[in-house]
TrEMBL record:
The chain crosses the membrane at residues 100-124, 188-210, 230-251, 258-275, 287-311, 360-382, 402-421, 473-494, 506-527, 547-572. It is found in: Cell membrane; Early endosome membrane; Late endosome membrane; Lysosome membrane. It comes from Junco hyemalis. It comes from the Eukaryota. The keyword Transmembrane applies. This is Chloride channel protein. Strongly outwardly rectifying, electrogenic H(+)/Cl(-)exchanger which mediates the exchange of chloride ions against protons. The CLC channel family contains both chloride channels and proton-coupled anion transporters that exchange chloride or another anion for protons. The presence of conserved gating glutamate residues is typical for family members that function as antiporters. It is a multi-pass membrane protein.
Length: 840
């Protein structure tokens, strides 16, 4: 066999031994092969079989997809459809259907996401008010809706009307007094525990994947990981129901994060209606990216923020057409939610506010201080919550999720009821904290002492001294702040649907409102100070405490999630405060810088690492000086690397190798003597192909020769029928040399979404690097001091050269065995000559 004509001879940089080499074809959508008539044909890898083997090219649960392989499949499918569309009207219709299927699936996802979000909002509001009482005139009305049509409400007590009855009035017939308070207290705790118990029971029995926020898992799935059932119909159904129950129970959690999970479930289910997405995992993830944008769109009423959230926070692969479809999905979802009008205010958002005073330059200082608080809160929360979740996993307490939820719900209800600001629904609390004090506000936060001599203008009330109600409210808000900080740490991660957006915003809004009132009173009593003199004249309205609450909410959410651009857009869409975008940007960037000083991970990345998901964060920088040989497997103490030969192994040999190992794939070499790389075969594809051949092909037995070559070798007449498996072989696996820096290898894995990469030295397959190996290596580098960088030729002495001094290939077994440690110090004349003659 002439080496110069062998297309599988690897390129090793030229060599110095006179052996003719030829560069492998670069990986692409086509693979050039030679057919029986010696005519070069460009044929796709998966089209080599007359009948494709069912199951080949699919993935097992908890495995990572091959992005390059999936994109190749999609390009080939697209070419096949385009080549047939001119044959008939039916083929043209199929082509148009395929082209429009992406828009159809995101439209259906947006419609379903908007409808479910509206349903969840309405049900959660009704069940939250059910803890306090019930509307006798219409049982399906919440407290606010019940009193809308009443003519007996007063300005001071606008939430009291005859149609709404508290539980004390219904059970003991008392509306006031100690007995009424105790009865309402008991019923509040009863309903909170009932909702929490029902939620955790449904999750545990029917859909364990319905717990938590869902965003860490969504990020991992979008990076290419397979978690069967996480986006299924049962998870969607149970998450929708239990999300309402969890929010209504009064736990320190929100529904915004889980709504992203709900929307992604809708996108996953609808993608199975279209073959373009149901058979291709990479294309399906484009739909899930659009679905996550729709989820944020309906969670906050922020369509543009949803698109940016998908781009900045969750998506791993985000091409331009996915940006357009995400925008369209967010638009459809927001339109449906607006049509349902769940908040009854004819607006898309709950927190819409209108401030009548501009912000002034000196206010940047308190805004930045709120950013510092947000960063400190984010760093504290991430460390405390991860420590608690890790303790939960390692102790017996984690084995009783129902008991944990009941205990957390009981503590929350007992402490929350006496304080009106913790008893409130968290969304209503944020709305009250954001609201500016106008003449029609009856909240104790607006209990200012009025100056009877000042002219009263409806839209521009001057700064006034705080009354007793404001000071009382500040003390209650301080207690609420401590309560929310502690309970959120223990609540996020329990086995019910639990979002983090709303609790974090509530903590920031409380802190911001307190700071805003303090600055307002400081400006009122010390308006002659140089920082106030230019803007805050006597009788002027220059400080808006609600604005500080909005900035504090953005800062705390940014400190926890480390979002920047998308967060600012979400907040100004959420509140309508476009004029205040500069204070928001200043606070969010400050919170990110402060938080990054304590650790670059956001809460979602921390939970991904805690759960051990194979996620390579593109935000992390690799600055260490290790090489591919330091990370590859097998190591010196490991068993040798298992490989397959091109045409020298039987079906029984391969089945034995599969049964004795747990590897997900095997390199294929030409023979024992010539260790040149042919390709890479996946374990799942081998198993499926052999099982299919035994069922459908006659004469395939354990002693049948397995052939990965293009031409079957000549066999004795009495030999059983050979099994051709070239069709399942990846003939252009990604390879790197053992001297490749790991920063380049990590970049390749991130940008191409690889599952594995082979490591070679002068054409010899030395080992393999998988995504798991890279993650383990990154974790080790975080925990240990970076090792000194070895010289470039250090690893060259560990492996035998490909060819001996006589120019012939060295003999080799089926398994690649590294050179023994004792032989590392012995160098052949070739290696010494090579090292001495090379200039750096």
């Amino acid at each position: 066999m002439d080496d110069s004509s062998d297309p599988y001879l690897p390129y090793d940089g030229g060599g110095g031994d006179g052996i003719p080499l030829r560069e492998l074809h670069k990986r692409g959508t086509h693979y050039t092969m030679t057919n029986g008539g010696n005519i070069n044909s460009s044929t796709h890898l998966l089209d080599l079989l007359d009948e494709p083997i069912p199951g080949v090219g699919t993935y097992d649960d908890f495995h990572t997809i091959d992005w390059v392989r999936e994109k190749c499949k999609d390009r080939e499918r697209h070419r096949r459809i385009n080549s047939k569309k001119k044959e008939s009207a039916w083929e043209m219709t199929k082509s148009l259907y395929d082209a429009w299927s992406g828009w159809l699936v995101v439209t259906l996802t947006g419609l379903a996401s908007g409808a479910l979000a509206g349903l969840i909002d309405i049900a959660a509001d009704w069940m939250t008010d059910l803890k306090e009482g019930i509307c006798l005139s219409a049982l399906w009305f919440n407290h606010e809706q019940c009193c809308w049509g009443s003519n007996e409400t007063t300005f001071e007590e606008r939430d009291k009307c005859p149609q709404w009855k508290t539980w004390a009035e219904l059970i003991i017939g008392q509306a006031e007094g100690p007995g009424s308070y105790i009865m309402n207290y008991i019923m509040y705790i009863f309903w909170a525990l009932s909702f929490a118990f029902l939620a955790v029971s449904l999750v545990k029995v029917f859909a364990p994947y319905a717990c938590g926020s869902g965003i860490p898992e969504i990020k991992t799935i979008l990076s290419g990981f397979i978690i069967r059932g996480y986006l299924g119909k049962w998870t969607l159904m149970i998450k929708t129901i239990t999300l309402v129950l969890a929010v209504a129970s009064g736990l320190s959690l929100g529904k915004e994060g889980p709504l992203v999970h709900v929307a992604c479930c809708c996108g996953n289910i609808f993608s199975y209606l279209f073959p373009k997405y149901s058979t291709n995992e990479a294309k399906k993830r484009e739909v899930l990216s659009a679905a996550s944008a729709a989820g944020v769109s309906v969670a906050f009423g922020a369509p543009i923020g949803g698109v940016l959230f998908s781009l900045e926070e969750v998506s791993y692969y985000f091409p331009l057409k996915t940006l357009w479809r995400s925008f369209f999905a967010a638009l459809v979802a927001a339109f449906v939610l607006r049509s349902i009008n769940p908040f009854g205010n004819s607006r898309l958002v709950l927190f819409y506010v209108e401030y009548h005073t501009p912000w002034y330059l000196f206010e940047l200082l308190p805004f930045i201080l709120l950013g510092v608080f947000g960063g400190l809160w984010g760093a504290f929360f991430i460390r405390a919550n991860i420590a608690w979740c890790r303790r939960r996993k390692s102790t017996k307490f984690g084995k009783y999720p129902v008991l944990e939820v009941i205990i957390v719900a009981a503590i929350t209800a007992v402490i929350a009821f006496p304080n009106p600001y913790t008893r409130l629904n968290t969304s209503e609390l944020i709305k009250e904290l954001f609201t500016d004090c106008g003449p029609l506000e009856s909240s104790s936060l607006c209990d200012y002492r009025n100056d009877m001599n000042a002219s009263k203008i409806v839209d521009d009330i001057p700064d006034r001294p705080a009354g007793t109600g404001v000071y009382s409210a500040i003390w209650q808000l301080c207690l609420a702040l401590i309560f929310k900080i502690i309970m959120t740490v223990f609540t996020f991660g329990i086995k019910v649907p639990s979002g983090l957006f709303i609790p974090s915003m509530a903590i920031g809004a409380i802190a911001g409102r307190i700071v805003g009132i303090a600055v307002e009173q400081l400006a009122y009593y010390h308006h002659d100070w140089f920082i106030f003199k230019e803007w805050c004249e006597v009788g002027a309205d220059c400080i808006t405490p609600g604005l500080y609450a909005m900035v504090g909410a953005a800062a705390c959410l940014g400190g926890v999630t480390r979002m920047t651009v998308s967060l600012v857009v979400i907040v100004f869409e959420l509140t309508g405060g476009l004029e205040y975008i500069v204070p928001l940007m200043a606070a969010v960037m400050t919170s990110k810088w402060v938080g990054d000083a304590f650790g670059r991970e956001g809460i979602y990345e921390a939970h991904i690492r805690l759960n051990g998901y194979p996620f390579l964060d593109a935000k992390e920088e690799f600055t260490h000086t290790t090489l591919a040989a330091d990370v590859m497997r097998p190591r010196r103490s490991d068993p040798p690397l298992a490989v397959l030969t091109q045409d020298n192994m039987t079906v029984e040999d391969i089945e034995t190798l599969i049964n004795e190992t747990s590897y997900n794939g095997f390199p294929v070499i030409m023979s024992k003597e010539s260790q040149r790389l042919v390709g890479f075969a996946l374990r799942r594809d081998l198993t499926i192909a052999i099982e299919s051949a035994r069922k459908k092909q006659e004469g395939i037995v354990g002693s049948s020769r397995v052939c990965f070559a293009q031409h079957t070798p000549s066999l004795p007449a009495e030999s059983p029928r050979p099994l051709k498996l070239r069709s399942i072989l990846d003939m252009s696996p990604f390879t790197v040399t053992d001297h490749t820096p790991m920063e380049i290898v990590v970049d390749i894995f991130r940008k191409l979404g690889l599952r594995q990469c082979l490591v070679t030295h002068n054409g010899i397959v030395l080992g393999i690097i998988t995504k798991k190996n890279i993650l383990e290596h990154l974790e080790q580098l975080k925990q240990h001091v970076e090792p000194l960088a070895p010289p470039w030729h250090y690893n060259k002495k560990r492996y035998p050269p490909s060819y001996g001094p006589d120019g012939k290939p060295r003999p080799r077994l089926h398994n690649v065995q590294l050179k023994p440690i004792a032989e590392e110090r012995e160098e052949t004349e070739e290696e010494v000559h090579l090292l001495n003659s090379t200039t750096l």
